[in-house]
Write a structure and sequence with these properties.
The complex is a heterotrimer of chains A (502), B (309) and C (336). Chain B has 309 residues and is mainly α. Chain B has helices at residues 2-32, 40-58, 61-85, 90-113, 139-144, 148-166, 168-178, 180-185, 190-217, 228-238, 243-266, 272-276, 278-289; strands at 128-129, 145-146.
Amino acid sequence: MPTLRMSKIDKQFFGKMANEQVDFTLEQGEIHALLGENGAGKTTLMNILYGIYQADSGCIELDGKPVSIKSPKDAIALQIGMVHQHFTLVPTLTVRQNITLGLKSKGYPFVNGKELDRSIRTLSERYNLTVDPAALVGSLSVGQQQRVEIMKVLYRNARLIILDEPTAVLTPQEVESLFIVLRRLREEGHSVIIITHHIDEVLAITDRVTVLRAARNAGHVVTRETSEEELSSLMIGRKLQKIERKPLPFSFASKGLQLDSIQSKNGPLGPLSLSIPAGSIVGIAGVDGNGQKALAEVIMGIRDIESGTITLDGKPLQHLSVKERKALGIGYISDDRLKDGLVLDMDVRDNFLLSSYDKREYTSHALIDTKRVQQATEQAVSSYAIKTASLSTPVRYLSGGNQQKLIVARELGDQPKVVVACQPTRGLDIGSTEEVHSILLDLRSQGCSVLLISSDLDEILTLSDKIAVIYQGTIMDVLDHDKVDMTHLGLLMAGSKTRRSV
Amino acid sequence: MELVVLSSFLAATVRMAAPIALAALGETISEKAGVSNIGVEAIMLSGAYFSFWAMFQSGNVYVAVFAGILGGAGASLIHAFLSLRCKADQTIAGLALNFLFLGLTSFLFLMQFGKTTTLPSITVLKPVALPLLSNIPIIGEALFAQDPFVYVLYLMVILLMVFFYKTEWGVILHAVGEAPRAADTAGIKVHAVRYLACTANGVLGGLGGAYLTLVKLGFFQENLTGGKGYIALVAVILGRRNPLGVLIAALVIGSAEALQIRLQTLGSTIPSQAFSMLPYVVTVLVLMLSMGKGHDPAALGLPYERDKR
Amino acid sequence: MKRTILSFAVMIIVILLVSFLLIAMVGSDIPTSLASFFRGIGGSTYAMAEVLVRATPLMLAALGVSVGFRTGFLNIGAEGQLYLGAISITWLGMTFPSLPAPLMLVLSLVLGFLSGGLWALIPGLLKAKFGLSEVINTIMLNYIAINLVGILVRTSLKDPTYPYPMSPMLPASTNFLHLLSPTRLHAGLLLALVCAALVYLLMFRTTLGFCMRAVGLNARACQCSGIAVSKYVIISSLISGGLSGLAGVSEIAGLHHRLIEGISPSYGYLAIIVSLLGRNNPVGIVFASLGIAALQVGSMSMQRSSGVPTSIASIIMGLVVIMILSRKSLFRCKEA
């Protein structure tokens, strides 16, 4: 009898089906992958299992008995635990407080610190998960926080553990450590579901795979019996298009973007030096939280630097405002498009021209020239194939892919000299991802300096001419694309010191 | 002679600070849970009116206090309904509440007591000196020879310190205001906690309002609180949402009011408005001085929706 | 769509029922009270003009509040800014009594705008530069401004010939044009309407307005796009306070012609409700200010003839806002 059976699950949000007649079965003591590209419905399905959403129709059975899960509390009571992609920890509380959050321990309501610390240590030894109960969660690294999340789940006696994209934020070595933990969990009798879109992980650690595509079941295989090609074709329904990044036959006159010994104010950055030549893509590899965002912000002018210089083709940028830098031709794709990139309640036109409204071509007699605004937006929407009901639709109703394309049209459309692209394809489906990649390669061949910051190593390796590894705010090393060794890369990302060469 | 002046000044400070401190403690609980209530004025007015009315009708202090608590809780629960269920903007909800209760308490007062020339009044609560403690030089009289409300205030500060920092309930409250999603996925009922916090806000604010009628003034009139609710909000920020800090902040503000009265009784040609301005100026200055320090609960003022994508 | 109409209908019914209940509780006769309410707002030219007179300061202050709100600057200080405007025109009239009328008019508008603007600029700067919440600061400045008026009418702005705390009558050159005798209607209304048109142009047709709105909707995205958030918060606070300052000028120049305490029966706070009802939009604000003014004038008429206390207006207003805030949720309206 399977441990878990979800049958004919339907779920829609605002008229769009996120799960359509989805079936999912999990056997006792196995590691099972839920595979699919972004937007396929994997997280929705698991959120229904964990009680965060309720299915519109369909049923869930645990050990053959139908169950009703109306909230995470119910799921926890049924010994289901979930480690989310975005950690659900309270940064201002300690590890112990987070692990025991809401639980009625001995002496409730008073907190018996020593007792709790002891039981946490016992548990962590059993599963090889080292955590310091007294540390403030906000001060921990991402890998450590993930361990706290797993401990949280185990402390509540979870038998069935769901992990949502667990390796997205880890170095290759940390991924190995995680795999060891997962195998340990399997040994101890737990059943594990991993939500992922990385085929190599599926092949490395799982027993069986369920593939979702466009909200429906696309296939179900035993890992031992399948291959990368089969999984990839189940996942995207067609052959994966290989991006060709050819070395450029010509070089450019411009000196590109140079960062020299920059130190950010109170900051996570520094001393950092980096060179992004014109007509090249430099990829920044690193674990999330080592200064990537700060690097992007410092180049854009959103964050101040204390010392050092940033130059574009020899011209210093440090004292220029964000507006002035953009006027020089620097485009910015932030990693958080909803917070940093778009004003959700304004329409497509307003978002397209967000920073350009005071340009002379869009104003006449101090008033906004609505005709020219309309024309410019129409052109952009058609050249980037942005799907929207109309130009007056508030941008919050566009899909993630179309929102990103609007940002790309805005930031990259005016022949920029520099592009800072952070996680440019995060949350996008394969089709949109390929489009964005080819736009970046086009810009590169036009002489643009592209800085690509991404936690997706595949993306970095595919697109970059040079790969710079960032760790705790400095560049550990810059590797040539042809000379990359994965183990070496992983060590650099984890901070292992080597000879510095720029 | 100087010591006597200092002692009575301290005593006046405590008396001025008490209603503000009580209301501020209530708002602290609410804000720690992530709900910001500008309508503290309404809560205090409601507590003030209903405790006055109950005292006038029954002559029984306990009934009056209870009525004040109910009045305050009622006002706070309307705000809770708007903020939590209707997910309305909490600032506007608070302002609407202030309007509503200003009108409501005036209306009810006029209805109950008509337009009489003499202000209906009640006997105020007498101070009770605590044995031994009130004999401590200088501060003894000021701190421990006060009315019972002040002792309730001390007790509340101690209880809340224990609650916030030594119990699991305090951790839950903190989590709900700081990272509601984390609390939700840990199985905590975020909305239930927030409703309870709002109720506590109403209870304490109602007590603060009851203090004004039952202890300080002995009568009620339109807009009795005159801005004290807003000042309580400032005490919350100044005290960094720590019960002891909030008490100290309220004492600082209370001292400005006590100073105002003292300067007025000294008599001068300066219009009294210059002195009534004092507490508000002090609060703006202290707010400016406190800038940068302190940390708002990350989810303060933001409605929590589990289904939010 | 049906649900929306239903919800509004229920709202109106509830308001009427509560009003009737309150009237009955006081012991007054409902039909008589209602009759006196409507007579008070429409029964004569004088009555209708009174509504317009009361709507004028509400309109100006609400326009100011809306400009602030749209930029994310919660201006609760319109009351104090209004008083600052009143103080400035009083000072102007007393200090330069012999200025010719056109010059006096221009100067009083400019000075009034700047004084109100300055009063809002303080919390605006504190917010833009130090991230301090403007809600509490603007409220505190209200109380300070009211007390400031109290001090000034007893000292430097006091009329030496009267024992009461008030300024002397201001020279006729400060007066706004009287529009319709024997009513109190004055040119302040025209000022308000002109401002409404200007605010509309500003917010929805100029780059400045666009940037202010964008900052109000997502300041972080603006920062990343090069729109200077601080600059627009500061400008917005200045305009917001300035318009409320003009409301103060209008009350003195059009109605009172001298500075006394209490010229504002909470206009500044009412303006916030007007702005909310008018959805922070100049057109909506014009109508909402007429509505709230009618409520006030009508309730005063009810008090005079039927003894219904004016606090009923506060209750109704608070209730209206509460219902607006809860309407969508209670009726599960799925509106955008």
